[in-house]
Fold this sequence. Notes:
Elements: E1 5-8, H1 14-19, E2 25-28, H2 35-42, E3 48-52, H3 59-63, E4 70-74, H4 83-88, E5 92-94, H5 101-117, H6 119-127, H7 130-134, E6 147-151, H8 155-165, E7 170-174, E8 185-186, H9 190-196, E9 199-202, H10 216-222, E10 227-230, H11 239-248, E11 253-256, E12 275-277, H12 286-306
Parallel strand pairs: 1-2, 1-3, 3-4, 4-5, 6-7, 6-9, 7-8, 9-10, 10-11, 11-12
Helix pairs in contact: 5-8, 9-10
Bound molecules: NADP nicotinamide-adenine-dinucleotide phosphate (NAP).
Amino acid sequence: MITHKILLAHPLPPSLTNELPALASVVELHSLPDPEAYLQEKGSEFTVLVTTGTDGVDAALLSSLPNLQAICSLGVGYDAIDLDAVRAHDLVLSNTPDVLNDCVADLAIGLLIDTVRGLSAADRHVRRGDWPRIGPTKPTTRVSGKRLGLLGMGRIGQVIARRAAGFDMDIRYHTRNAKPELPWQHEASLMNLAQWCDFLIVACPATPTTYHMVTADVLKALGPQGYLINIARGTVVDENALVTALQTGELAGAGLDVYEHEPKVPVELFTMEHVVLLPHIGSATHETRAAMCSLVVDNVRSYLEQGHLLTPVNVSKT
Length: 318
Ligand code: NAP
C-alpha cells in the first residue's frame, strides 16, 4: 500500500494549507530554507503535487519527483504547467473548472462597461478635483445593443454571452468548432468576427495555437471605434501590437485583466485614459476562491481514496 505525501510547490490560500493535512502528510516547499537540497533527498516521497494555474509546474520540478502521480492545480487555466513534462512522466492533472465561471463573466462585463463608458477615468477625474474646475467628463460610447464578438465560447464564454444578451447585444463567436446547439452565430474566422463586432472579448485558453492570435491585423479590423477586452491570458494578444494600436488610435480602447509577462504591465499603458488595467482578478472573490479551493481538496481526496480525479484535464496532445 502506498503512503501518499503531498507537496505544495508555491504559497497557497490558508484554506488549502489548513485542509490538506487531514488527507495526507503535507510539505510546503517554498517555506523550506533550501528547497533544491530537500528535493534531492526527499523528492521520491511525494505522490501528489498541488500548485496554481498561474505559478504552474516546470519540467525541472517534475524531474525531482520520480514517484509523483497526480498534480492538482488551483484555477482553470493550466498554461503555466509544462504539459510535455506531465505527459513524459505519465501524470494525471486536475484544474478547477466551472466554479469560477460566474465571477470571471461578471468581471468581463464590468471591465467592458468600465472601459467603454470610461468609469475608472471618470472616477480619476472626480478625485483630481477636475469636475468643479472643468466640468464632467466627455460623453463616451453606448454599451447596450452593440455587437459583441467572443473569441472562445467555452464555459466562461457562454456565461459572458448570456450576461451580454441581457444588455440586448448582438453576439457572435469564433472557435475552432461551431456549437450549433447555442443561439449565437459562429464565425469561422477571427478576422471576420473582429470586422463585424464593436467589442471583442478574449475568453479562450493560452495554448500554442492561440498564441498571439489577436494580431495587429485583428486589432485593425476591430478598428478605431472598437474595444478589446481580455480576461483570458495575455499571450493570446500580441501585446506590442496592442500598445501601438492604442497609441495610434487604431483601436478605441482596451480593458485588460491579463498580460503577456505578468505581473509586468507595459508602462506605455499606465498613462492611457482609454485603457482599464486590472491585476488578474477574474476569479478573485471570497466565494469563488473558496469554491476553487474546495474543488482542489476534493480532487486530492478523490485521488488518494479512489485513484481518480474529479475534474481531470485532458493532457493528451490535441
Ligand atoms: P473552456 O471551457 O475550455 O473554453 C475554451 C474556449 O476556447 C472553447 O470555446 C474553445 O473552442 C476555444 N478555443 C480553444 N482554442 C482555440 C483556438 N485555437 N481558436 C479559437 N478558439 C479556441 O475554457 P474556460 O473555462 O471558458 O476558460 C477559458 C480561459 O479563461 C482559461 O483557459 C483561462 O486561461 C482563462 N481564465 C482567466 C481567468 C482570470 O482570472 N482572468 C479566470 C479563469 C479563466 P474550440 O475548442 O472549439 O476551439
